[in-house]
Amino acid sequence: MWRVLVPLLLVLVSIVSSHNASQGSPDELLLCRSCGFEVAASRDLKFVASALALAQRNDTVIGELRVPVQLFQNPQGLRFQVLTFKKAAVHKHWPADEQFSWFPGYSWTVATCPRCHSHLGWSFQPNIWPQRVPDKEFEESEETFVALILDRLLQENFAATLLMVPKSYRS
Phi then psi for 105, rounded to 5 degrees? Predict the structure, then answer.
């Protein structure tokens, strides 16, 4: 019987593996580390390089995907490792300011979690835009992006491993 089941099982595993590979990797979600709000998806990653970055590295911070992480320093000397996205579910605090921008030619505004109001990063738009922009216009533009602070985010699949299962449910 094992002679039949083992080859059958190997065939099923290879079919499932090839199906999953053809589907592409699933979309990974990034959550606010403070409250768990779904902030960004891996499909929305958009690398925007900056000559003002102190350092840049490729790191596996979203599932198995290697993504560019840039290190910046603000005028107060605080350092932030950021990922850039074409859009994210954040609250933007207008007006945008072009002083001390890490991305030349762009104005920035603070971006916070819509649920718990934790500072998650910054939203960037071209300097030539008005200081206040409707969210829909911001998200639909190819010229805008959001830089999120790496240590203020949590991977959804990692967060799921933090949940405790009561002893009464364990087998």
Answer: 90, 0
Residues ≥6 apart with Cβ < 8 Å to 138? 92, 123, 125, 144
DSSP element (H, E) containing 93: strand 91-97
Q: How far apart are the first and last CA of the chain?
A: 28
How far is 130 from 127, CA to CA, in rounded Å?
8
Order of strands, sheet of 55-62, starting from the edge strand that comes earlier in the sequence: 55-62, 65-73, 79-85, 145-149, 119-126, 106-112, 91-97
What residues contact 68, with CB distance under 8 A and at least 6 apart? 47, 49, 56, 57, 58, 83
The per-residue pLDDT of the chain, averaged, comes to: 83
Q: Can you count the helices (H) and strands (E) in the chain? A: 3, 10
Distance of alpha carbon 151 from alpha carbon 161, whole angstroms: 18
CA dist 117 → 89, 136, 145, 152, 153 (Å): 12, 20, 19, 12, 13
**pTM assigned to the model:** 0.78
